[in-house]
Hints:
Helix content is 46%, strand content 19%. The protein has 20 helices and 17 strands. α1 (13-21) packs across α5, α8 packs antiparallel against α9 (179-197) and α12 packs across α13. The radius of gyration is 28 Å and the shape is flat.
Amino acid sequence: MSDFILLTDSDDPAVRAAAGQLESWTVQQVDATQLPNAIDQSGVRALLLVTTDPTLLRTATERAHASGIPVVIGCVDDTARRRAVELRAEEWYRLPASPEEIAARIHSASNRSAAIGAAIIDRVERVEYEEMLHDAMTGLPTLPVMIERSRGLFKERGELVVLYLNFVRYSKIEEIYGWEKLDAVLETTSAAVREFLDDASTPGNSRLMVSFTNDDDFIFFHVPAAGVAAATDSEITDMVARLQRHVAGRIEAQHGDDIAALFDIYVGRSHVYYNPKVRLERLIYRGIREAAKAARSIEERDRARRVADLRASLRERGVYVDYHPIVVAETQEIYGYEALARGVMRSLRSPEVMFDVAAEADLVWELSRLCRSRAIEGMDTHLQPGELLFLNVDPHDFNDPAFNEHEVKHPDRVVIEITERTAIKDYPKFRERLRAFREAGFRFAVDDAGSGYAGLGSIANLEPDYIKLDISLINGIDTNFIKQNLVETMVKFANDHKAMVIAEGVERAEEFKAVKELGVHLVQGFFLHRPSHLPTPALTAARR
């Protein structure tokens, strides 16, 4: 019998050793870019991938599955593991791995795909059924499972408390950092919630589930234990406060202050009583809708409170500024600082939250004026001579009569970052407005290039001196060829037009090395410096 071919992009000796442990298997190694075409050749019985390029990974996996070939993915980290799960690879393993483990994964993947005809249909249906029962990302059971598990307890006790946990602004995390970061935050969240509920001080006979698979809200069932009264409003309020502190602490420890500042939770409650005349499932679904509505009501009240907090902050000038260093990639000398406004009140600490509240209350101009004023006040005390201040300004701010080119004493030391929370609708008119600032000595940067409104149109129309690449483009760039090609193209464009590229969100040594090799001029990120009230004096880089 001819050998089975294990097609792979890995040059790991452990892979060849693993194939040697399997009867009648040989290894064929090809470059990752050639994998999709090589899959169609005769004799390929399994595909083993270690590439971290998400596009190549998806293309090769989909082509293999279309041909009935099982896929095994070697994962370097949790991000790669999540991709393997999302792509429905038959098996995955953590790199590095022993030949024995790799052989076992290949054998398992092959056995899973060995069934034919009705057996394949049955296996697919079982996989789909399993996905209906548990959320693959968090591992939590889904609503149908929990209804069945709670059915007997609910009937016996005659009552059920439903809590709807609405984790707000998680969509903002996804918008800023990308879906992979939000998936990681959700994994942390679900683990922290389960950890909290395992504590003896939480109510007995409780259940937890996701509201929908791959969603970011959770549902909590509480069936009081026999002889124990249902949790009171005050007890639930106390539990929610403790839960919030616990989850926020875990998120801050694993994902940092900026993401933790976006975390908040609203919990709605409903009390459901068993009625044998009404279908049990309908009783529970109605209770869930009531709890979700209560959570939204709490959120609305909290928004009103935040507006009041914002008005108080504007009156009391309750905003401070963190100065985040921007450094020269080649020398790591400090080139300038981006001014990051923070609310003094904890409820407004995150600038995203602060400006969202301002937009709801029609106070964006007032908040922008305060943030600019605070940033400019610190130029003389927090920046060394010759260092530049990068100041975030939304296009909407240029319509504010109070914002003009005379607002700053040293305009030649200020770079206005065009931060497009709102789209620029009339470029000719907007460029006329910028001309007065440019003639006064200001320079300009397009912020978050590659995200939202800040695309090639903005760069072409605004002719910036600096192009700031969005964090979603820099995250994982060391393993993503497409991102590397995009950044390389942007650097060439900037060089041709006498502009400079700034890579923001550099958090790892590998990312720093990658952007440096791609010719990026300036770098900003936690790998080099964290924001600080009092930045350490450093050598000032020579200006162009």
